[in-house]
Design a protein that fits this description.
With about 220 residues, the chain is mainly alpha-helical. It has ten helices and no strands. The termini are far apart.
Length: about 220
């Protein structure tokens, strides 16, 4: 069977697998961003943040190839992801508040949207390639990523609540992701030409740095 329908179904399956494989980093950012929101607001933050980020992905899919070539985009995005990891880890040992301060939910949603967009170039490019230019398949793939990311981030949030040590692991992973983004930014690659071993070392340093700095800030905050 080589007709249009089998090809369409095969493309749908490829997009589903892509969403499953690439949803992890985005789900981790969302889980970390909403961890200190009150329980009632977490679900809203997760759903709205993921939906807003995916809506923006639809707009940038058309220029996905050009996004990779814009200097400083990944550099700034990677630094932001690392900052999220440090900030969340500094609050890791603080009990979640009963009620959120005004604007805290919107702040979490902003973290989710910005970090998701800067981390989603691989997802966007993969979906754009698997769709073979079919706009409906692009919308299907990006829309399907919403429930995948929402479910994964909700599960990660529950795990972090039950096993607080996983917050440190999550922060370290964000450090690794942020370090990789910064070191593979077109400006950094063109200027420094980092070898693979340098990239790996930078990822490890960012992961360790987040844990160390986050714990130091957390201890200072508790003393204050």
């Amino acid at each position: 069977m080589t007709g249009p329908l089998p090809r369409f179904l095969a493309d749908c399956l490829a997009i589903i697998l892509i969403d499953l494989l690439l949803a992890g980093d985005n789900a981790l950012v969302i889980a970390m961003a909403v961890r200190h929101l009150p329980q009632k607001q977490r679900r809203f933050g997760v759903v709205f943040g993921a939906a807003a980020a995916v809506a923006l992905r639809v707009g940038i899919t058309i220029v996905a190839a050009q996004i990779l070539n814009i200097e400083f985009i990944k550099l700034a995005g990677g630094a932001f992801v690392i900052w999220i990891g440090v900030k969340v880890l500094a609050e890791a040992e603080s009990p979640p508040p009963e009620s959120a301060a005004p604007g805290r939910l919107l702040q979490a949603i902003w973290y989710i949207v910005f970090a998701d967009i800067t981390m989603s170039v691989d997802n966007v490019l993969a979906i754009a390639g698997a769709s073979h230019g079919n706009d409906w398949l692009i919308l299907f793939g990006l829309g399907l990523s919403i429930p995948f990311v929402v479910f994964s981030s909700t599960l990660l949030t529950v795990i972090m609540e039950r096993y607080p040590v996983t917050v440190y692991l999550g922060a370290a992973i964000l450090g690794k992701v942020g370090g990789e983004m910064m070191l593979t930014d077109p400006f950094v690659a063109r200027t420094l030409h980092p070898a693979p071993v340098i990239v790996y070392s930078g990822e490890a340093a960012a992961a360790i740095g987040i844990v160390v700095i986050g714990r130091m800030l957390g201890k200072r905050s508790r003393k204050a």
